[in-house]
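Notes from hallway chat w/ T.B., transcribed later so I don't forget. T.B. wanted the structure written out for a chain they're using in a teaching module, and asked if we could keep both sequence and structure tokens in one place. Agreed to drop them here.
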Amino acid sequence: MKYAFTQADFDVFKIDGLDNRMGELIEQTRPKLENLGEYFENYLTELTGDETIAHVAKHARRTTNPPDDTWVAFSTNPRGYKMMPHFQIGLYQDHAFCMYGIIYESKDKESLAKNWLKNIDKFDKLPRTYQISLDHMKPEKTPLNKLSEEELEAGLIRLRDVKKGEFLVGKVYKPGDKAFESDEAFIKDLEKVMKHLLPFYNVD
């Protein structure tokens, strides 16, 4: 597979030790992230009208603990993505994801949170199986169908008011998901997710 994740990609995160896990991650999974980055750079540039740059996780600062996840993120800044809202495709040991949102490093957090609070009805148009992450460092995510509107609003208020607040929304894929049956199926599904998330990119 050039794009679609297989069980071998999820199993990378079962390998003990930084060097061993990084070696397998670089050989097994990173080429797929680079391929996804190349494809979706062009797709998101066309979809959003803004030149988009892919940033594949390198995990270069790690000296002891092996990474629990890996990803490719997309932003309009060639120097990085953490400082602005961004799309991200990535995976942990038990799931993969395609999400859009903002993390604590960004100076745009408050203004984006205000916009999303003002347009909170946009979440009603998303598939109810899409999930929310309030911390990009942790695998836990909550499906929209298990969140009340008050809980959703509280997450956005936390993004606005708390320095460490984060908020990402998108689709989660379990190992063996039918979207992984072929590269074509995975690409088509990711394109559909990004179209669903586009209204959060184009906030008024």
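Follow-up for T.B.: The chain is about 40% helix and 15% strand. Might be a good example for the class.
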